[in-house]
């Protein structure tokens, strides 16, 4: 099976150690470990005093359900081992000092780059969300409130907007739980429409880490769990970010 | 299997004619047909002179590949039966005079509603795309160019942005090919990253229409087809009523007073 993006570095035959993976990788695997522990990944991810704006904080557009569940989970960050993840406007801000491996890294430029789920900067109009992660349970909870710019059927969130929210929650979970980096697959079964402006709670579990892949499941439901909006499974490929070359 | 959103009107047991579909529907089904032909759906969808801005037209941000493939396909709209679909800022503009069935319709208001794939209004920064549809072959081609606001891994489009583009292409295809209305499932296998600013060509086929569901497949690749970005299959559910309901008719269902309504914000009891 072809790993995502690896053909950038050239095509490979099936009988290599890892089919589809560029020649450089076996050496990386022998000398490296997927050894960065979840705790060290989380510490690096959740540095304080970055000077960057954290968008995963309450604002006036958050509905009462979202605010109250946020506060419940914030309490749990003090007592139960949960961690609130920061969320910057650009994914590049999350990986300062690191870059994509395998020649995938592209030169930086001055354009206004935004991580897709922070593409709309107007409060309440696009994605409002916050992700809480539990390092030892390897679980995440994402509170997601879609705004009117995410519309599909009138009054309801576009199926694709939920797909992207699930992909992003999987992405951060896979990274912290096991250095999962790129989406291999997503499989979503939709059950009910999410009304724009209401809260959807996404519960993500890491099912297993095997064969260089992180396997996760997600259920998106209403706060009272009476309505299931969708279920999803996702698989991410483990890859280590490289250090940026010193200038 | 539960149809998306249909529990709004109440839970049903398995032995009804159509599990999960409100009680009022069997009568509708006897009297209605899924009869709106693709041609009539397309004509209604592609009305000219709407006075609305069509975003599925070239602009300065389109890369050369996108422009040239667009012009090739435009030629085919004259000779080979392809149709270029208009794309308005809001999905509501596409269904003027119609509304969702089964009590799913919500009152309109003056907020700035945008269809998700047109959420970013700045040229070239978000989604640039155009969909061509072939009514008799029941195929679509979507030309998609992701901008820097759609980033995931640095320099590349977020997987979720492609998922949404596929869902939207499926959505318009299912609607025109068979009145498909709501997504039931999406299953995507990613192969390669799409560089921001480059063209991805999404080819969608309707595989079959069966059991009130439209089944489609999609392959997203580079223009020269040398790089496959992703493959996807999607199912949209057909509306159990023959069409979106005319907006002038009040649609009543038995389920409105049901405490199990799945849309609490519209339930006066909540």
UniProtKB/TrEMBL annotation, chain A:
Occurrences of domain Thioesterase (ranges): 155-227
GO CC, alphabetical: mitochondrial matrix
Signal peptide per UniProt: none
GO molecular function: long-chain fatty acyl-CoA hydrolase activity
Coiled-coil zones: none
InterPro entries: HotDog_dom_sf, Thioestr_dom
SUPFAM superfamilies according to UniProt: Thioesterase/thiol ester dehydrase-isomerase
Top-level division of the source organism's lineage: Eukaryota
GO terms, biological process: cardiolipin acyl-chain remodeling; long-chain fatty-acyl-CoA metabolic process
Pfam families for the chain: 4HBT (PF03061)
Stated name of the protein: Acyl-coenzyme A thioesterase THEM5 isoform X2
Organism, scientific name: Ursus maritimus
Gene name as annotated: THEM5
């Amino acid at each position: 099976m072809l790993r995502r993006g690896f053909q950038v570095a050239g095509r490979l035959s099936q009988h290599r150690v890892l089919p589809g993976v560029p020649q450089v990788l076996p050496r990386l695997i022998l000398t490296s470990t997927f050894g960065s522990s979840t705790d060290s990944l989380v510490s690096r991810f959740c540095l304080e005093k970055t000077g960057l704006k954290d968008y995963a904080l309450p604002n006036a557009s958050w509905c009462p359900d979202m605010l109250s569940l946020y506060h419940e989970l914030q309490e749990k960050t003090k007592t139960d081992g949960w961690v609130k993840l920061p969320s910057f406007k650009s994914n590049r801000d999350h990986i300062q000092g690191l870059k994509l491996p395998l020649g995938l890294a592209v030169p930086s430029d001055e354009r206004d780059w935004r991580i897709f789920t922070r593409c709309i900067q107007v409060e309440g109009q696009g994605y409002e969300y916050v992700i809480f992660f539990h390092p030892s349970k390897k679980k995440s909870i994402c509170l997601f409130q879609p705004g009117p710019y995410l519309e599909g059927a009138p009054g309801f969130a576009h199926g694709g907007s939920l797909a992207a929210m699930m992909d992003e929650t999987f992405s951060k979970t896979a990274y912290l739980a096991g250095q999962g980096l790129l989406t291999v697959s997503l499989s979503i079964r939709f059950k009910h429409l999410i009304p724009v402006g209401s809260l959807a709670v996404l519960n993500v579990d890491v099912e297993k880490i095997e064969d260089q892949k992180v396997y996760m499941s997600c259920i998106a439901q209403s706060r009272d769990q009476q309505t299931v909006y969708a279920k999803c499974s996702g698989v991410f490929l483990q890859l280590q970010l490289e250090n940026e070359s010193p200038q």
